[in-house]
Amino acid sequence: MRPPSANRALDVELLNWRAVFDPPDMSDGDKARMIDVLTRLNASEAWQTELASRSWTPLFLAGDEFAVYLNEDTARIRTVLEGLGLVAAG
After folding, report:
1. Cβ distance 47 to 38 under 8 Å?
2. What are the pLDDT digits (tens) for 48-63?
3. 53 and 72 belong to one structural domain
4. Residues of the chain with pLDDT > 70: what percent?
5. Mean pLDDT in the chain?
6. How many domains does the chain have?
7. What is the DSSP secondary-structure string of 12-23?
């Protein structure tokens, strides 16, 4: 069975991502250590094998780079929802 979007000839990509957020009062040192640990985990052979075995698209962003992505993605989704009339514009 084809996914619904294939039945309608729509070219759709949807990423289902997860995130680890730090508390607002986290020190810069603790934040840097957390980013370092997550960066090393992301680069691990075990994680890369898991990504490949599940055909997951790797998308690792940390710190300011992730904040930029999150803001852009939120704005993009809001624009779509506004266009569909599902949320108020503004």
Report:
1. no
2. 999 999 999 899 999 9
3. no
4. 89
5. 89
6. 2
7. ------------
Q: Above 90 in pLDDT, residue 28? A: yes
The verdict on 70 and 87 lying in the same domain is yes
Q: How far apart are CA 67 and CA 72, in angstroms?
A: 9
Q: DSSP string of 1-43?
A: ---HHHHTT--------------TT--HHHHHHHHHHHHHHHH
| pLDDT given for residue 60 in this prediction | 96
Domain membership of residue 89 as a residue range: 59-90
Confirm whether 81 is domain-assigned: yes
Round to whole Å and give the CA distance between 11 and 24.
38
Cβ pair 60, 39 in contact under 8 A: yes
Q: Quick check: is 5 in a domain?
A: no
